[in-house]
Design goal:
2 copies of one chain form a homodimer. Chain A has 15 helices and 16 strands. In chain A, strands 4-14-13-12-11-10-6-5 form an 8-stranded parallel β-sheet. In chain A, strands 1-2-3 form a 3-stranded antiparallel β-sheet.
Chain lengths: ~375, ~375
Amino acid sequence: MYTLKNKKGRARRGVLETAHGSIQTPFFMPIATKGAVKSLSSGDMLDLNAQILLSNTYHLLLRPGSEGMRKLGGLHKFMQWDGPILTDSGGYQVFSLSKMNKTDEDGVAFASHVDGRKIKLTPEGSMAMQSSIGADIIMQFDDVAAGNSTRERYQEAMERSLRWAKRCKDSYNHNQKLFGIVQGGTHEDLREQSAKGLSDIGFDGYAIGGLSVGEDREHTFRITKFLANILPEDKPRYFMGGGMPEEIVYYVSVGVDMFDCVLPTRNARHGTLFLWKKDPAEAVKEAFELAQDGADDSRIAEALYQKIQITKETFGLDQEVIDPYSDSPTSKTYTKAYLRHLFKTGELLAQRLATMQNLSFYMRLMKELRANIEN
Amino acid sequence: MYTLKNKKGRARRGVLETAHGSIQTPFFMPIATKGAVKSLSSGDMLDLNAQILLSNTYHLLLRPGSEGMRKLGGLHKFMQWDGPILTDSGGYQVFSLSKMNKTDEDGVAFASHVDGRKIKLTPEGSMAMQSSIGADIIMQFDDVAAGNSTRERYQEAMERSLRWAKRCKDSYNHNQKLFGIVQGGTHEDLREQSAKGLSDIGFDGYAIGGLSVGEDREHTFRITKFLANILPEDKPRYFMGGGMPEEIVYYVSVGVDMFDCVLPTRNARHGTLFLWKKDPAEAVKEAFELAQDGADDSRIAEALYQKIQITKETFGLDQEVIDPYSDSPTSKTYTKAYLRHLFKTGELLAQRLATMQNLSFYMRLMKELRANIEN
């Protein structure tokens, strides 16, 4: 399923095979939370060269629901996306979105944030829902410890996640690829125990969970580097829920293959744009070399992009295009002044143009990282 | 500027020349209120075969403002639309959107609905703003009587509009094409006086204003037919702010050439869709023949379309595409169930897909009407 093609330092260039085609690694997954990347269609995602989309089991479980999803023939058909899809397990959203949730060894009981309906999600239930969705890559159901938990809570959540990992392995649909999720907070010994426990069970890939949840970035970097050294070499490694472009460059440089994050899309909807500072090939080459040399993340960021708040008055008469280096045609067509005007006047097109810019930035970043590892 | 190519009954097929290209008549103008058709880009409007866009002087006067618009090089450049643009005069929005407005012979003083700033719009000011915008076709500034006004008020507004028409004619930018607006409510004698007064001044086209503002449809039809008989044959006739597809078919059948309306776009944003009942060529042929035979408007509507509320539960599992007869690729790609899901879950893509459907319906309607007049 995963073929490692070559390495540069500890960075990995590979190919991940799925039922809906192969994916060049390392890669970034735009987030189609409820079956759509906010403001964009599946056709747009093809235009943006997205290789794979991520969708959220929790949201699809609420609407259209498990039975609805099955009757609709699964998510690929529903959203008319023929490429690969990864779904999370629902665990994180149950924990973060549901007002009321209660965890026991069986699973998590919660109330829907949409209509208050009471639902119980278990490892087996998550596998069943992800099977209804028909994702190519599915995630184990895990017990999610809050950021800044005690060591005891991290340990409890990690150990329960291991037991749940086994239950997922025993009940998942074998047409799908199942990933385990490493937990253990910022404690290396807990993380190591989790990684070993998961690889003993055996998964198609391994995710680094429970990071980018508010801890200092140095801990995130330390744990990620630590895990990338001990996770199985022949399986893809997935950093869940991160991050800023400079973080992704760093994680790739230490051997991570897969990413997803709301940052490009959520920032876009609030008018925060990632713009290339210079030709992307040059910028990413420089950033990647800095990461390999162990440079500070602020220097990596500095080489890559400028982040602007397009709603600022200074852009009111700015007739430069949004980003002359962008791969998104709209970013090379419309001016900063126009995009600002769309935001200030509440036009729906604002979200779309900004999202196209930020996602095209992330897509190009990954493409250039792949090229840098190959060369 | 306007060339009448041929007629069928009283319906007219012509070509309208503008500084940004020629437009085949009869035609419909999608509304780019603040410089964007809601949820769509100028590139999308090209894909939808829009020939011309309408934008609102009042909104552009507030943001980016007259000076901003001039510094930005006009609306064509600002929104990256190389085709023709028509702007209204601002009069109607001043009247309908501004909380406080006071009309005297000089013009209308009002408070911006955005920030309360006090502004005075006069015939000369409207011409200057429309010149800053750089529209190809501009409208005279008129005094707008509320629907269901007294005859006295209709007469006053009509007569003042005539005086203002003259002031517009005396002050407009001659690189633009200026249209007069016929007023007079539902009173034929007032309408006739208005039409004659305007044609004595002489304009590049004549608009039928003050209809579709709440009066019974029979009055709208009666006045429109009456005016289409007396307005100059060698100039385009523009029905402002209407209407439903069956109304447009009727107005075309009595000799109107130009239309604009928020119905397709506003309905779309609320999940109300116009869907073809059968092949558009057949449907419009039938509808046009019914209109020429003087059939009831409900029969014309019946031949043309079905109007559905996509948010209804009945579409929850409907796996038919939105509209198999649509010219919009997304309407032939995504299912009704998916579009309903997008609306129910608050996804921004919902507005976009629905707007594409409704605008493509209107664009195709006009195309088939043109074909029917030609044949």
